[in-house]
Amino acid sequence: MASSKKSLLFLLLFFFPIFFITPSSAFNSNEEVTISLLKWKSTLQYTSPSSPPLLSWKSDPKNSSSSPCQWQGITCNEHETVIEINLRKFGIKGTLSNFNFSSFPQLLVLDLKGNSFYGTIPSSISNLSELSYLSLPRNQFHGPIPSSIGLLRNLSLMQVYSNNLSGTIPPSIGNLTRLTILRLHYNEISGSVPAEIGKLSSLVLLTLFQNKLSGNLPLEMNNLTQIKELYMGENNFNGHLPQQLCLGGSLEKFTAPGNQFSGPIPQTMKNCTKLIRLRLEKNRLTGNISEDFGVYPSLEYIDLSNNDFYGQLSWDWGRLQNLTKLSIFNTQVSGEITAELAEAQKLQEIDLSSNHITGVIPKELMDLASLRVLFLDNNKLSGNIPVGNGMLYSKLATSKGLTSRLTI
């Protein structure tokens, strides 16, 4: 009998936390979330005060619909734990300084895109340890990206573009090894790209353009072999492009205009058979365009202008069936424009001005149905503008020479 009583006592003690503590904890947790959200709401303003978006955010113990799980923009799991806060384009103005991140240990998604949030991104954001989706773009956040961001090791997407962020890219960002998308463009971020970015081997999209970044790119960027889209334009980068840029053959869009990159085109560029868009204009790159670039059947847009490229236009134009824009002006390109260029039948814009091109304008160019812009001035061309049946020729006035830019 004594043994039986001990067993019963053990079972009661063992299950006591489950039957008594757990509901209380769940209640307290739900109450904490409610208090945290309402406190934050009290600090927010709205761009349209006549129709505030968070009317459902209110507490009423007698009404089950007052649970945060029923509030607009809030999603919970089956255990009534908040896992998503999505206030995208809600017309909200405010800060995150009164947002209690520690109240949301299971939060997976935080999306505040397209509002008027301002102030800094608090370092306490690191309390969202389960977060996988962080979207804060198109707001007015300023200050640096906190180094504590590196504690969000479950992040797969981080986008903070179109804010007023400054400072440098924190090296701790290298801890976010699950990141596939990182979008930092349209900010005031300065300094160099940290070598730790090379640890983000799962990245498929990286945007750095329109910042104040500078210096050489770290060699570790060669580790980004899964990258599909890489945008680095309008910064102050110098040195060479990543030499293993297209080692994995995944690259589809690569833009780096308006920097001070120099040296040759990476040899791996020939592997970029999936390339759709390539912009390298306004740099100091060198090389023979006839040899340094491969065949890109999916290519739609290419701009190599304002560099020190040389060579001839001898690409296999018939395999560029999707090409709409070809721009290689102000380089050292020479040779003739061959009739084969017209085999890229979707061409809408061609700019080959300010080069060393000789010969005549092929008639076939004037037959291109979609061609609307043709710049060939400041070359060594001869002859007259040929007669054609395309859109461009139908709008050209008669010209005695080839001094016209030949644009509609």
Structural description of this entry:
This is Leucine-rich repeat receptor-like protein kinase. One of its GO terms (cellular component) is membrane. Residues 99-234 form the Disease resistance R13L4/SHOC-2-like LRR domain. Residues 1-26 form the signal peptide. It is found in: Membrane. By secondary structure, the protein is of the alpha/beta class. It contains three helices and 28 strands. It has a 14-stranded mixed beta sheet with strand order 2-3-5-7-9-11-13-15-17-19-21-23-25-27, with no helix packed on it. A hairpin with a 5-residue loop joins strand 2 (74-76) and strand 3. The longest helix is centred in the first third of the chain and has 40 residues, at 2-41. The chain is elongated, with a radius of gyration of 29 Å. Residues 8-28 and 397-404 have low confidence and may be disordered.
Task: List the SSEs and their pairings.
Blueprint: H1 2-41, E1 45-46, E2 74-76, E3 82-86, E4 92-94, E5 109-111, E6 116-119, E7 133-135, E8 140-144, E9 157-159, E10 164-166, E11 181-183, E12 190-191, E13 205-207, E14 212-216, E15 229-231, E16 236-239, E17 253-255, E18 260-264, E19 277-279, E20 284-288, H2 289-292, E21 301-303, E22 308-312, E23 325-327, E24 332-336, E25 349-351, E26 356-359, E27 373-375, E28 380-381, H3 391-394
Parallel strand pairs: 3-5, 4-6, 5-7, 6-8, 7-9, 8-10, 9-11, 11-13, 12-14, 13-15, 14-16, 15-17, 16-18, 17-19, 18-20, 19-21, 20-22, 21-23, 22-24, 23-25, 24-26, 25-27, 26-28
Antiparallel strand pairs: 1-4, 2-3
